[in-house]
Every structure is written in structure tokens, then in C-alpha cells.
């Protein structure tokens, strides 16, 4: 009987000790704005909004706009066939770690992308002569993919994130890239 009483007392203390573990202040902060530093170096503007639904799940959207002069010049000179101008990327993330301050995550995403396409085509004039010409057109596509990453918070507000992933365009493969990459090194503010 004494052993049973001692066991109950011990289990009550254990449960009470678990309740007294302080919760991370990150639980109360559900929103995050992030800027990708790596994209900025490559003359792209990449901003992301992320909403934390639970301690394990979050959803968000990234918007990327490209203004890279070297890529634009390569496109105009014919060195590359397509120039992606924009990407809108909704995503869902799952936290793979128990910690909220530093954790690994897995992500699935859709990538709505578009830009300019360039190709050399064989044309025939009114006199039935064949000639080659450069035709430029617009493209848009939808890609699906997955990524993994790591996030670390400093003082429960400032986050540093590394992300790498790949996806495949599905609808317009003759004009858009077959494989898209999702690579980033971001700095964020959680509120």
C-alpha cells in the first residue's frame, strides 16, 4: 500500500513538473515575413509570408520577381531559350523536429511561373523562300515539387532559414524549364 501511495505521489509530481516547463514564446507568434538573401545577390526579389497553424504545420506563399541583367542579356543574345520573370509559390510545411527554436522541415509546393521564351523558327515568305527568324513569346506554367530545410530563431523573433528543393513543370514543357529549383537562404521576422 505504501508503494502504491508513493507511486501515485511520484506520478503526480511528474505530471505537475511537465506542466511547469515553460512554453516557447514562438507559440504565440503565428506570422512570419521573410526575405531571401541569396536571391537578392542574384538580382531577384524574393519575399515570403508564412502562417503557423500548429506547432507542426505552417502554410505560406513566396513571390519572386527577377530583374537579372546578365540573364536578360543571355536571353536576348540567344544563349538561353527562356527567362523566368516571376514565380508565385504557395507551400505547406511540416516541422520534423520537436523544438520550435531550431528545426528541420519538409515542404510541398506549387510554383506558378512565367516569363519570356525565345526560339528560332523556319518561315516561308510570299515568294516561297525559306528563312530563319527569332520569335519571342510569353510562357506560363505550373510546377509541383518538394523541399527540405532548416530554420533557427534568434531571440524568438529573428529567423535564419536554409532551403533546398526541386520541382517539375507540368503544363507547358516545350517553353518553360523542365526542372525548377527552390534554393534559399532567408532572414525572417516572426510576429
**Radius of gyration, rounded?**
25 Å
Strand content: over 45%
Sequence of secondary-structure elements: HEHEEHEEEEE
Strand order of the largest sheet: 1-2-3-4-5-6-7-8
Number of helices: 3
Termini separation (Å)?
A: 52 Å
Largest sheet: 8 strands, antiparallel, barrel
Structural class: alpha+beta
How would the blueprint of this fold be written?
Layout: H1 2-19, E1 31-36, H2 37-41, E2 44-52, E3 57-66, H3 69-77, E4 82-95, E5 102-124, E6 130-154, E7 158-169, E8 179-190
Antiparallel strand pairs: 1-2, 1-8, 2-3, 3-4, 4-5, 5-6, 6-7, 7-8
Textual characterization of the structure:
With 191 residues, this protein is an alpha+beta fold. It is built from three helices and eight strands; from the N terminus they run αβαββαβββββ. It has helices at 2-19, 37-41, 69-77, and strands at residues 31-36, 44-52, 57-66, 82-95, 102-124, 130-154, 158-169, 179-190. Strands 1-2-3-4-5-6-7-8 form an eight-stranded antiparallel beta barrel. The longest helix is centred in the N-terminal third of the chain and has 18 residues, at 2-19. It starts with a helix and ends with a strand.
